[in-house]
Design a protein that fits this description.
The chain is an all-beta fold and about 475 residues long. The protein is built from one helix and 33 strands. The strands form seven sheets. The protein has a nine-stranded antiparallel sheet, with helices on one face. Strands 6, 13, 14, 17, 20 and 21 form a six-stranded antiparallel sheet that branches. Strands 24, 26, 27, 29, 30 and 32 form a six-stranded antiparallel sheet that branches. A hairpin with a 2-residue loop joins strand 11 and strand 12 (about 165-175). The longest helix has 12 residues, at about 305-315. The model is unreliable at about 1-35 (pLDDT under 50).
Length: about 475
């Protein structure tokens, strides 16, 4: 059996924008609803603690989760854009294929195959399926969301396993696109989770003392119309939608701090086919090459708020300062360059990432993560530079629990000397010497050269913070 879900979003969504390097999302909600799936066809697994169901008509999307024997589904299925399912975003924007153009309200969404099906009611096809007592394996060909009956040039796979009150999921995207352009990174939902209206309280930890029992935070519902979701840095890598009794559905995504979520509709009431819903998605900004194999994993936890947090704390309390090794992937780093051309040498990644230093403004940006300056006073960069330039720079963003954006203030940087002979070296940069490198930090920024140079490049094997 192959050893290897993410989601689209509200399908009563009439507008969704993933724009810019870090991805910006805009939704306008409508009252329209998709035809309901056939619940009699669901495939179930049950371990005596929780029961999970997937829909064969919707590419194996997770459409049911409850306590064993309760019959009370916590997952929202108002339309085909809810559930818990795989979904990815890429270029071009707008995306057109086989003579089809997206409707005006979907022009901004670009390339977007989703697991359940498309906006015209065509479900994604399962091509492999295996079920055991407490586990499932499935593989599907997703549909391009904004186009009519056009399969994506890719496959989605997932392994779903029940462990106590948790669902452990491993996911894989395998791209085989005929368009070989490398488009800049965009936000990816890894996955999106939609729960029923009863579970309206969005809880998380967003402070700078994770895994210590510090006070939790509630992400309040946005009011006043417009975009209903909020971004934040979940520094214990989890969030949950719970009811008034602090019971509900949580998601834990290892080493993933950037989250988006919220609640739309009437709070506190509503079942699986009703309009009101809560939403959570861990996010990474990722480049999805035409031939990429992209994998991720997550856990769903059904239980009390204490149980959900406890699951995350048990798995994250020994987290060390960041250590990114570019052996076979980008480690969730992405790039900036003038004109939106923030790309690298492409997939596969074989021991290092390679950047073209002839592109104006070329720089590399880390995924958000929390570390303490006292635990990581030194930056170690293993890289080979081919350039006539002699200086590079690194920057950092001080952690702010009210703002998920990286903020690289003028003083938040250090310059260091480089040797441009194309040989790999380990560069040691003493960050503790800089006055602004203090307390909690959240993003790292690497500018390999300070001036562009045609034909120059850098290959980066590893970026580590430590002592």
């Amino acid at each position: 059996m192959n050893t290897f879900l993410n989601c689209h979003s509200l399908a009563w969504v009439a507008l969704r924008v993933f724009a810019g390097l870090l991805g910006m999302t805009l939704l306008v909600l409508t009252a329209s609803a998709r035809e309901k799936f056939d619940e009699s066809k669901l495939e179930f697994i049950d371990n005596g603690t929780i029961k999970l169901g997937v829909s064969p008509d919707l590419g194996g999307a997770i459409t049911y989760l409850s306590k064993s024997g309760s019959g009370k589904n916590v997952i929202n299925n108002h339309d085909w854009g809810r559930q818990i399912q795989m979904s990815f975003f890429g270029g071009p924007v707008p995306y057109e294929e086989d003579g089809q153009k997206p409707k005006e309200h979907w022009e901004h969404i670009g390339w977007n195959p989703i697991q359940a099906g498309d906006d015209f009611g065509n479900g994604s096809k399962i091509v492999e399926f295996t079920k055991k007592e407490t586990s499932l394996y499935l593989k599907c060909i997703p549909m391009q969301w904004p186009l009519n009956n056009l399969p994506g040039e890719c496959t989605y796979e997932s392994i779903i396993e029940l462990k106590g009150n948790a669902v452990q999921v491993r996911c894989r995207l395998v791209n085989a696109r005929s368009d070989k352009t490398q488009y800049p990174g965009r936000h990816q939902e890894l996955p999106a989770v939609y729960a029923n209206g009863e579970y309206y309280r969005l809880m998380t930890y967003r402070g700078n003392k994770p895994f210590t029992g510090d006070k939790l935070a509630q992400i309040p519902k946005k009011v006043g119309g417009g975009f209903p979701w909020k971004y934040w840095l979940a520094t214990e890598n989890w969030a949950a939608l719970v009811n008034d009794d602090d019971w509900g559905l949580g998601i834990y995504k290892p080493n993933n701090s950037l989250f988006i979520g919220g609640f739309a509709g009437r709070e506190g009431i509503g079942g699986t086919h009703d309009n009101a819903t809560g939403y959570i998605a861990p996010l990474h900004t990722e480049i999805l090459d035409h031939n990429i194999t992209y994998e991720y994993d997550y856990s769903l936890i059904l239980g009390s708020l204490d149980e959900i947090r406890g699951y995350a704390v048990k798995r994250g309390k020994s987290v060390m300062p960041p250590d990114w090794k570019f052996k076979s992937d980008r480690q969730h780093w992405h790039y900036q360059a003038s004109g939106g051309k923030g790309t690298d040498a492409g997939w596969p990644i074989t021991g290092s990432i390679e950047l073209d230093l002839g592109k104006p403004g070329m720089a590399a940006m880390s995924p958000p993560t929390l570390w303490q300056a006292k635990d990581a006073p030194v930056l170690y960069l293993e890289a080979a530079f081919q350039t006539e330039r002699t200086e590079a720079a690194v920057g950092w963003s001080n952690y702010n629990n009210e703002d998920h954006h990286p903020v690289f203030k003028p003083g938040n940087h250090a310059h260091f000397e480089i040797i441009g002979d194309g040989e790999f070296r380990i560069y040691r940069v003493d960050l503790s010497a800089e006055k602004s490198y203090r307390d909690a930090l959240s993003y790292l920024y690497l500018k390999p050269v300070l001036q562009l140079e045609k034909g120059a490049w850098v290959k980066i094997k590893r970026i580590r913070l430590g002592k």
